[in-house]
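Deviations from the work plan: none for this task. Representative record:
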Amino acid sequence: MSSHTEHKAHHAHHGGPAIYTANLIALLILTGITVGASYINFGSANVVIALAIASLKAILVALFFMHLVWDKPVNAIIAVAGFLFLGIFLMFDFLDVGTRVNLQPHNMKAMEKPTPVPESMNPLKAAPPKPVTAAPAAAGEHEGGEHK
Amino acid sequence: MSSSTADLQPHGGHDSHDHGEGHDPHHQHHFATMEQQFDTAKIGMWLFLVTEVLLFGGLFVGFGLMQHQYPQEFIEAHHHLQRPMGALNTIVLLFSSWTMVMAVNASQTNQKKKLLNYLLLTIACAFIFLVVKYFEYSHKFEEGLLPAMFYKHTGDAIVGSHGYATFFAFYFMMTGLHGIHIVAGIGLLSWIYFRARKNEFSSAYYTPVDLVGLYWHIVDMIWIYLFPLYYLIS
């Protein structure tokens, strides 16, 4: 098997129209399933089902349309490494968000009447800061005087 | 022109870089064999595809985090997307991936006529995708379903929430970036088409067809994830 593929590795035409067409049909069926499943309420499992079917479709595209199943393994290693690191990125983000707790004591009463923020501290309503043109002008004059 | 085509013909002479068979005009001097040259190009393409995955991956993570922050708004906003349009575009892109892989297969087996026809079909699918996207976008523009501070839609359940505008910021960013990839793909496919018309590809040299094919499949693969996340989750 390996010597056979090595001999014609360069011109090897793996796959072929029959496999590609079968792959397309499989992808279309999976699309139909994922659209159909989205109309049924599985609760929080809907997201999992949608992503599982999407991943299955992506794997089919990568293996057969992108020839990974027949390619040299180095290409598959690169592809898997990319998705692996994306997976680590996703996992830690959702671990973070999913495990956050309210840091306030559970018996702390919510503020019934929040202290109003004074108008002067509201950046949208506070009076604009006083123009400071006088100082640089004076400095300029001073500098000019020094140069002379 | 005639002189340059003459140069492109394989010449089986005993020149310095002859490897026992006719020297392929596409064979670059710094590669030992055509196979090594092909493998090198392919590894480079896969590395690029990984950067594409990570580019969109960051956006997917951001979308997921915002979905976690504004669950109700995101579900409500997603109902503004037309599911049949998304499904239609999914089918168009999957079909175009098939025509693309058939084009690669045709170039590997020296079927020029087939190669040209499948490339044209792929380009046609790309345009159909963009036309459907145009109708979707114009519908959103009319309803004021726009990103961030441009959001003008009224009648949302949670008045004053930033969730809706955030959803559409992600929607336009991700589908827009994907659309730019489709436009770039049309350019690449046209380039391959005109090179194929000039008989530049054969079973001995089809690297550009193969690599553009890989690019086209990754664009399809990104849509495979965009479609359920935007159109189907409820």
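The helical segments of chain B are 2-8, 34-69, 71-78, 83-108, 112-143, 163-197, 207-232.
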